[in-house]
Design a protein that fits this description.
Length: 193
Amino acid sequence: MKRLYLIGGPMGVGKTTVCRMLKRELPACVFLDGDWCWDMDPFQVTEETKKMVLENITFLLNQFLRCSAYENIVFCWVMHQQDILDAILGNLEPGDWEAQAFSLVCSPEELTRRLLRDVEEGIRTADVIPRSLERLGCYEGLDTCHIDVTGLTPEETARLVVQKHSRTGIDNKNAGLPRKEEKENHGKVQGLH
């Protein structure tokens, strides 16, 4: 059975680093960063571009889920709203796979420290700091498995993700993931905790 790891969290929390480690450690693994489907110049957030990005993401995830070469699919993106998770999961095709959504969070001080390091290294610009801090609280209400990465190394975080997925993933072999009208079964079917 395939495993789908959905890794969310604010900018700078360490999602990409953790996902790269998961790609190296998990057998037959592919990694998709949602930002790759959103990397454009000029960067424009409109209803049209948001729809396009979600369609790109779900298309690629479905391709990976169908492909016999991969056992593990790792996906990361900010995913700070339940509607984003629902839109992604609700458009994945049923099959012989299980999914688990995670939110990586940390203390505001830790997030600021990580972002300042990224700014110093030229990876990000300083304007990302207040935007990322503003979104940090959004993850509290999400129907995901929360991992506080304050003080954790990326290696420790990756190990926690694998351990938690092993215990909580839900089989989706014979049932598609719920659309909005099926909210009452949301957590059970999707394996979101």
